[in-house]
Amino acid sequence: AQSVSQHNHHVILSEAASLELGCNYSYGGTVNLFWYVQYPGQHLQLLLKYFSGDPLVKGIKGFEAEFIKSKFSFNLRKPSVQWSDTAEYFCAVPDSWGKLQFGAGTQVVVTP
Amino acid sequence: ETGVTQTPRHLVMGMTNKKSLKCEQHLGHNAMYWYKQSAKKPLELMFVYSLEERVENNSVPSRFSPECPNSSHLFLHLHTLQPEDSALYLCASSQDRGPGGGSTDTQYFGPGTRLTVL
């Protein structure tokens, strides 16, 4: 079975700080990886995804994620966060049946 | 207009009530999903439909009953719920579903229905 671990449940940081959110998964047969974001009061929406090719993926709003197959990781990064990046971030990875498994989420709060 | 809409946005019901949640997608997608989002827990996939065919998640109690009359509409019928069923219920759609009932296509989510069972 697939399990998806997000190591940080809550992150608080100041504007302009760098952000890195960890995501590890257990089933290595997949190469489709996702980060979703849920801004306060808004829908869950896709931030970025990796299907193939360059393991460094660029997403919206300056986010990027790096797929490291040997480490079963797909960490999310942003060099300089803004107050508007306050949100909950979810890593999602399909299991062996193709069903998308979500991590528990990381609540990120950016203070002005 | 957003691609996936859900009604109602909030619902309070007693344990003996029967209610239904509605989801509609305007994206021309073939697959639709129900998820349960509880506090401090990962999103739980409940049901998947593709072209009106259901792929059932066996761990979902029978008090939750999905219905997909066409590829644009998805319902979740609720009856004799328990307080622990209180959660945010999210609907999503994707272009297609993958093998085993899941999907690796991007999923588009609705705003959810906040359900409280008293």
Report on this model:
The complex is a heterodimer of chains A (112) and B (118). With 112 residues, chain A is an all-beta fold. Helices cover 0% and strands 50% of the residues of chain A. In chain A, strands 2, 5, 6, 10, 11 and 12 form a six-stranded mixed beta sheet that branches. Chain A has a four-stranded antiparallel beta sheet with strand order 3-9-8-7, with no helix packed on it. Chain A is globular. The mean pLDDT of chain A is 90. Chain B is mainly beta and 118 residues long. Chain B contains no helices and eleven strands. In chain B, strands 2, 4, 5, 6, 9, 10 and 11 form a seven-stranded mixed beta sheet that branches. In chain B, a hairpin with a 2-residue loop joins β7 and β8. At the A-B interface, β6 and β11 of A face β10 of B.
Give the secondary structure arrangement, pairings included.
The complex is a heterodimer of chains A (112) and B (118).
Chain A: E1 4-5, E2 10-14, E3 19-21, E4 24-25, E5 33-38, E6 44-50, E7 56-58, E8 64-68, E9 73-78, E10 87-94, E11 100-102, E12 106-111
Parallel strand pairs in A: 2-12
Antiparallel strand pairs in A: 1-4, 3-9, 5-6, 5-10, 7-8, 8-9, 10-11, 10-12
Chain B: E1 4-7, E2 10-13, E3 18-25, E4 31-37, E5 44-50, E6 53-56, E7 64-70, E8 73-79, E9 87-94, E10 108-109, E11 113-117
Parallel strand pairs in B: 2-11
Antiparallel strand pairs in B: 1-3, 3-8, 4-5, 4-9, 5-6, 7-8, 9-10, 9-11
Distance between the termini of chain A: 41 Å
Largest sheet of chain A: 6 strands, mixed
Structural class by helix and strand composition of chain A: mainly beta
Most strands sheet of chain B: 7 strands, mixed
Low-confidence stretches of chain B: none
State the helix count of chain B. 0
